[in-house]
């Protein structure tokens, strides 16, 4: 296991690019960038106060994101069973069609663990109504196993910030809380520092707003659907095309 970790990631290891502009952006904020061997990508480890977070950019891990994607993740001090999901409306509608085609028209009786949690939750949890979504109603959808927690999370700065990002882009956006972890996932072809800064700002807003939610969580425990937060890296080299 340790040998595989060293092969994928680590200071001093060779990578395809040095990412000088991204490394300078990270360093200016007191963070560290590391390249990934044999993959076109990088990892930045940072912190928000006492909370550690990780940024990864590289090949997409989701079928609904083509090309490369940006991922940000951090620990949260919330109940372990809490599950919350915010995604752009276009992506939600696409996922709902995919779930219907795969599990209704194919007459399957359950969604297996190979299906991403984002899709499983569409049939597991209630959605916020347009009235409950407020500024997000035209651009995003939100669902989870605690509506009061979700509504308070989206109140204040996070709701308008999400709406502004959704209006300014036509790419997938997923913001998720699961197993005491917050994650943001989006398509990003060019990891320019300005783009990294904008997405980090949104992620930081979501993190800070999640920390201020003060609601007793009394929902039944839900199934765990997220992998461990900080493996050495979830970046992987693109699969080689067969000849």
Strands of the widest sheet, in order across it, are 1-2-3-4-8-7-5-6
Please tally the β strands and state the result. Answer: 8
Query: For the CA atoms, what is the radius of gyration?
Result: 18 Å
- Helicity range of the residues? 25-40%
C-alpha geometry: globular
Class derived from helix and strand content: alpha+beta
Order of helices and strands: HHEEEEEHHHEHHEEH
Q: Specify the number of helices.
A: 8
Uncertain spans: 1-15, 219-232, 236-243
Q: End-to-end span in angstroms?
A: 30 Å
Instruction: Determine the strand fraction and express it as a percent band.
Output: 15-25%
The overall pLDDT average reads 78
Specify the biggest β-sheet.
8 strands, antiparallel
Q: Could you name the key traits of this structure?
A:
single chain; 243 residues; alpha+beta; eight-stranded antiparallel sheet; 8 helices; 8 strands; 33% helix; globular; disordered N terminus; disordered C terminus
Describe, in plain words, how this protein is organized in 3D:
By secondary structure, the chain is of the alpha+beta class. The chain has a domain at 54-212. It is 33% helix and 21% strand. The chain is built from 8 helices and 8 strands. It has an 8-stranded antiparallel β-sheet, sandwiched between helices. A hairpin with an 8-residue loop joins strand 3 and strand 4 (68-75). Helix 3 (89-103) crosses helix 4 (117-124). The longest helix has 20 residues, at 193-212. It is globular and about 45 Å long. The two termini are 30 Å apart. Residues 1-15, 219-232 and 236-243 have low confidence and may be disordered.
């Amino acid at each position: 296991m340790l040998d595989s970790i060293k092969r994928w990631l680590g200071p001093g290891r060779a990578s395809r690019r040095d990412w000088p502009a991204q490394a300078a952006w990270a360093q200016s904020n007191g963070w560290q960038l590391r390249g990934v061997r044999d993959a076109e990508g990088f990892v930045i480890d940072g912190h928000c106060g006492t909370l550690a977070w990780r940024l990864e950019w590289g090949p997409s891990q989701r079928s609904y994101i083509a090309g490369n994607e940006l991922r940000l993740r951090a620990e949260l001090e919330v109940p372990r069973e809490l599950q919350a999901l915010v995604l752009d409306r276009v992506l939600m509608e696409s996922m709902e069609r995919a779930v219907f085609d795969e599990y209704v028209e194919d007459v399957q009786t359950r969604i297996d663990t190979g299906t991403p949690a984002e899709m499983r939750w569409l049939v597991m949890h209630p959605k916020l109504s347009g009235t409950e979504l407020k500024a997000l109603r035209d651009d995003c959808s939100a669902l989870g196993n605690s509506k009061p927690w979700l509504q308070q999370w989206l109140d204040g700065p996070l709701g308008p910030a999400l709406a502004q990002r959704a209006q300014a882009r036509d790419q997938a956006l997923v913001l998720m809380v699961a197993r005491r972890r917050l994650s943001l996932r989006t398509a990003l072809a060019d990891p320019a520092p300005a783009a990294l800064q904008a997405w980090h700002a949104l992620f930081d807003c979501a993190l800070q707003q999640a920390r201020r939610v003060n609601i007793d969580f009394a929902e039944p425990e839900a199934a765990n659907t997220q992998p461990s937060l900080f493996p050495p890296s979830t970046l992987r080299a693109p699969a080689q095309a067969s000849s």
